[in-house]
Amino acid sequence: MQDATLPRPALLGIDLGTTNSLIAVWQDGQARLIPNALGEVLTPSVVSLDEDETILVGKAARARLTTHPERTAAAFKRFMGSDRQIELGTKTFSPEELSALVLGSLKQDAEAFLGHPVAEAVISVPAYFSDEQRKRTLFAAELAGLKVSRLINEPTAAAMAYGLHEQKFERTLIFDLGGGTFDITVLEYALPLIEVHASTGDNFLGGEDFTAALLNACLKSWQLTPSMIDPQGMASLGDALEQLKCKLSEGPQSLSWRHADELYEWSLDEAAAVKIWESLLARLRAPIEQALRDARLKPRDLDSLVLVGGAARMPAVQQLVATLFGRLPYRHLDPDTLVALGAATQAACKARDGAIEELILTDVCPYTLGIATMRGKGIDGAFSPIIERNTIIPTSRVERYHTTHPRQELLRIAVYQGERPWVRDNILIDAFDVTLTPTDNIQELDVRFSYDINGLLEVDVTLLQTGERHSHSIDRSPTGLNEQARRDSHNRLSTLKVHPRDALPNRTLLARLERAWMQSLGTQREHIAEWLHNFTTVLGGQQPAEIASHRSELNKALDQLRL
Ligand code: AMP
Questions:
Q1: Mean pLDDT confidence for 437-456
Q2: Where is this region: Disordered (predicted)?
Q3: Which residue lies with its CA nearest to atom 10 of ligand 1?
Q4: Of 441 and 107, which is predicted with more confidence?
Q5: Which residues of 211-220 are buried (b: 16+ CB within 10 A; e: fewer)?
Q6: % of the chain surpassing 90 pLDDT
Q7: Does the Cβ of 239 fall within 6 Å of ligand 1?
Q8: Is the pLDDT of residue 4 over 60?
Q9: Is residue 15 annotated as part of the catalytic site, yes or no?
Q10: What is the four-CA torsion angle of 224, 228, 234, 240, rounded to 10 degrees?
């Protein structure tokens, strides 16, 4: 007999961001954000290794970025798909292992909120993420014990949340500038249909670059270089500049920073910031222009503009968008939460939840995919497109090729992604060999690319003379993960101790107090030292109610000091 009381699997959507991550659930006909252990919906995508070798994720780790930079990592999504290793104290992690720890923390929050285990979610990725970056995101989810029911492009997820909210029929451009990536998507709503026409972007442009540019300018004005400053000093200056950047919309800002017994001061207003950011702001233009060209639209053809991502809050960015489009962007919905809400909405669509059955979404492949060929005699390395950028997905396209000489025994298929005529300027995704039965003639072959809804590619090669077929799932790029690396990651994570969720509020406050102490001077520092001492004493008393009320007061006081 079947148990009719089993809960339906939760319909979860995750925004795994460079700076912050969120998890949402589809419940009672709408997407809702799930709070973390601190009651907040934004969980900083930061991981730190505590002194007792336990892992901290989120706000506590974010505070330790300043006090313990050698044991803390942030913005690792930027390295997803690379073989970069990140050191936290004596331990080493890959970007996907760190992402897995963030996903694991979100999973725990969802389980605490829903009261039952969860095993599946829709996860969003930047539209411009490559095949390898998508694969690594899937692997991060696997490490966290989550099955990915679908990878959804971030701007497309935002478009779903926005479209449902507005119930409009219009052409929209989604401008998504997060901490580390920039995506532009042009789409059309004709509800229940949401049709993506074009997606472009830059995987290495985001709010973090704007902070880094301020850091360079500030050090230059003080005639200092990073090599003259210890990691903790660099981290505290980076943190102060990040805060300064976020407050710039309120008016001119200044900061004081102590280094080697000297007090340094720096002031900045919006006009000076725009000068420092000139080249970054210029880089925002090209993807916008390309997306409009690909969608065959002029700025005036758009009915609305939606800004998504924390960095789209910058006045300089909003000004640029307003100038480019000759109108003000739509900003009624919170740019931080749209992607997670849209991902949960997609989870509901996929599960055919009654409240949303009708919504149909079509997405595109944002870049051109093809193979390396010879052009003319002996000119090697020309890029031959098979799936052109902005083709609606899922798609399957075939092109015919031939071998280069009679009695050829081996054929190398090298798959590339990019928009340049020579493969050397594009990204190598994978390469594999097909063994041929040599004949006296040049042989013909069909190469078919099938690109699925998650943005993953499969290649089929058919030799026309023999009808022989070779299928190849692109499951590993030349820099990709092999089975052993995967097993190692599983083993490494399974031996880690993770800070218990219910202890996080106290641990986070201690980390915040330590950071505040470090960032302040004089009498303010004395106050914070006293708070730290008092809170440690209250913790020792082990009275939950007293601890909670003390914690709430101190958190409020720190919020007021903006520390
Ligand atoms: P996301 O990945 O969407 O969470 O975006 C994070 C980025 O948004 C970070 O680089 C933040 O510095 C930036 N950000 C968040 N709030 C603001 C703000 N008020 N002004 C400027 N940048 C912001």
A1: 91
A2: 468-496
A3: 207
A4: 107
A5: bebbbebbbe
A6: 72
A7: no
A8: no
A9: yes
A10: -30
Beta carbon of 77 within 6 Å of any ligand 1 atom:
no
Going by alpha carbons, the residue nearest to atom 9 of ligand 1 is: 179
Q: pLDDT (tens digit, 9 = 90+) per residue, 292-325?
A: 999 999 999 998 888 999 999 999 999 999 999 8
The helix or strand, by DSSP H or E, that contains position 289, with its residue range, turns out to be helix 285-294
pLDDT class for 481, splitting at 50, 70, 90? confident
Give dist(CA 346, CA 341) in Å, integer. Answer: 9
Ligand 1 pocket test, candidate residues 314, 331, 339, most atoms within 8 A of CB: 314
Q: Which two tokens stand for residue 13?
A: 């959507």
Cβ(17)–Cβ(459) below 8 Å? no
User: Alpha-carbon distance 122 to 281, whole Å?
Assistant: 32
- Residue located via tokens 């969720």: 501
Q: Ligand 1: does its nearest atom lie under 6 Å from the Cβ of 179?
A: yes
Q: Are 343 and 13 in contact (CB under 8 A)?
A: yes
Separation between Cα atoms, residue 386 and residue 415, nearest integer Å: 10
Q: Which atom of ligand 1 has the smallest separation from the CA of 335?
A: 3
Does ligand 1 come within 6 angstroms of the Cβ of 96?
no
pLDDT tier for residue 379 given thresholds of 50, 70 and 90:
low
Ligand 1 pocket test target in 16, 18, 124 with most atoms within 8 Å of CB = 18
The rounded Å distance from CA 16 to ligand 1 centre is 14
In this structure, which residue's CA is closest to atom 23 in ligand 1? 311
Flag whether pLDDT at 372 surpasses 90: yes
User: Binning pLDDT at 50, 70 and 90, where does residue 1 land?
Assistant: very low
d(CA 299, CA 303): 9
Sign of CA dihedral 202, 208, 211, 216: negative
Whole-model pTM over 0.85 = yes
301, 171 contact by CB (below 8 A): yes
CB 436 within 8 A of CB 443: yes
Is residue 118 predicted with pLDDT exceeding 80? yes
Task: Please tell me the predicted confidence (pLDDT) of residue 477.
Answer: 47
**Which residues sit opposite 379 in a β-bridge?**
375
Side chain identity at residue 450, one-letter code: S
Conformational region of residue 282, where left means phi above 0, alpha means psi within -120 to 50, and beta covers everything else: alpha
